[in-house]
Amino acid sequence: MAQVLSFGLRIRCSDARRTSSKPLKVAKTRPNTAIPTRSTGTRRNANRTYGVNLEISPHRAVSAVRLMRIELGGAFADLLNERGKGSGDNEMGYVERTLGFRTRDLDDRDLRLVTDIVGGSIRWRRYLDHLIVSLCHDSKTFRSMEPLLLQILRIGFYEIVNLDMPPYAVVDENVRLAKVALRPGAANMVNAILRKLVLLKEKNSLPLPKLEGDDRAQARALATLYSHPVWMVRRWTKYLGQEEAIKLMMWNNSEPSFSLRANSGKGFTRADLVMRLKMLKVPHELSPHLDNFVRIRTGMQLLADVFSLCNTVQILKVAQPVSL
Q1: Which top-rank group of organisms is this from (predicted)?
Q2: Which end of the chain has less neighbouring CB within 10 Å, N or C?
């Protein structure tokens, strides 16, 4: 299924379902580094003004709150991403009511990171949770973990394992978030688990399930490795074979790509588009199937700024299903 979008056009879609605006109740402490803001003078909690914490990474704080809204409040990731554009005050409203503080406003880079982290953490949740359980003392520790702490760990694991971000920077930022949003004890736990993950990743010895045993056992292992439901893995393996099922799961959880179509009717050829992409240093590849198309995976924001005022390029966004 594909959706064609043209730059310069604004499309408004009605949401079939609204997410709840009720704040999530989690334990929180006031940050020591908060910058006080002007109070309204009322004692009602609804009108309470929180401080702005400049030491907390804004995209991690927003990602944690969005993941909680999705898991506990039944929100939809794609709708949150669409509503997050240009709604900084509303986004910070959820953050301050849930975590007890505000961060600096999100810029375009922060919004892209939030979208990537939230979507990736959802797609790879089964795999990430397996790693977290393996690095905890026992499964009881994982099951009794409070929601916000679990989301912070998922964010840290996804950034280290899937995004290959600088590991010790990830550890430091997520420990700081846990300390301010929860308590020092939670920060110590995040620090210990993430540091253990960093050491195992550097040694290339992550605790992964082994493909052994009967068909059911192998299906459970594949479901964990590629973060898909067990029933789906069994069905695909039965009808496609294990090798093709693995390829399909890898594609299903891969990053979505965008195809750019050069509008030859405007005198803009694919060669012109390729030259422009090279000038902008945007990684790309020629479509093997369609003559006027070029594929890209990153650099969309830069292209939006360049082509927003012309009709020489159209974008074809390939939608992919999300699996847990």
Answers
A1: Eukaryota
A2: N
Mention every residue, 6+ apart, whose C-beta is less than 8 A from residue 156: 170, 171, 174, 190, 194, 197
Is residue 310 within 8 A of residue 303, CB to CB? The reply is no
Give the predicted TM-score (pTM) of the model: 0.73
258-318 topology per CATH: Alpha-Beta Plaits (3.30.70)
Distance CA 62, CA 165 (A): 18
Burial 123-156 (b: 16+ CB within 10 A, else e): bbbbbbbbbbebbbeeeeebeebeebbbbbbbbb
Structure-token pair, residue 65: 């709150």
Residue 36 contacts residue 91 (beta carbons within 8 Å): no
DSSP state of 213: S
- Residue 61 CA to residue 53 CA, distance in Å, equals 11
Alpha helices in 182-315 (DSSP H): 184-202, 215-225, 230-240, 242-252, 270-280, 300-307
- The answer to whether the Cα torsion of 124, 66, 2, 303 is positive or negative is negative
Place of tokens 């939006």: 304
Q: What is the pLDDT along the chain (324 residues), one digit of tens a residue?
A: 344 443 333 333 334 344 444 444 444 444 443 333 333 333 334 445 567 888 899 999 999 999 999 999 888 877 776 655 555 567 778 888 888 888 888 887 888 889 889 999 999 999 999 999 999 978 889 999 999 999 999 999 999 999 999 999 999 999 999 999 999 999 999 999 999 999 999 999 999 999 999 999 999 999 999 999 999 999 999 999 999 999 999 999 987 778 888 888 888 888 988 888 888 888 888 988 888 888 887 766 666 666 654 566 666 655 444 333
Domain ranges of the chain: 20-207, 215-252, 258-318
